[in-house]
Amino acid sequence: MQLVFATHNQHKFQEVKAMVPTNIQLLSLKDLGLLDDIPETGKTLAENAQIKADFITQKFNIDCFADDTGLVIEVLDGEPGVYSARYAGTEKDDDANMQKVLAKLKDHLNRGAHFKTVFALNLGKKKYLFEGIVHGEIITEKRGNEGFGYDPIFKPSGYEKTFAELTLETKNKISHRAKAMQQLIDFLSNMGSQR
Ligand code: IMP
Predict the structure, then answer these.
(1) pLDDT for 23-33, tens place per residue?
(2) Is the model's pTM score more than 0.85?
């Protein structure tokens, strides 16, 4: 089957592509010829994921899924949450976003946080949501060059390394996105075996 992953983020695309079984042909927005950003006007991760998936379904009439992800920090009352991409003001400035988090946590001992991903899958006329969470903590300075976004300051529970110090293979065993994606894959393969 063909399925579009509605993201312009090449890191996300590669993470997901590494998990997808060979019977699914994963298409990117570039494959559809879409270069414009899809507006994210929702108030929750689920709303934003659905908005992105619906945008593609309406425009191209094709099965697709989209994700929205947030970093949730306990002592900051869940910030940056749904506003993770534009936390420091400018859209998608990873360094500024991380600096803002580190500055806000400067005097806090509780550095607990989690990433949450919601995938919205539009299949035919039906819509499905899948969710994945990984718990961990925010360290005091950036470490590592892998991954993207907040990865250099996030250390998953049970690991000494940040997401940016782990390989894609390891991140893909434990991450929020991998957990949500595995549910989506299991759902599709169950549907396939019921046909
Ligand atoms: P969005 O899902 O693309 O809207 O991402 C929201 C924000 O979270 C952006 O700043 C991303 O860079 C960041 N983000 C999304 N997924 C990850 C991840 O797996 N690791 C680190 N940061 C991420």
Answers:
(1) 999 999 999 99
(2) yes
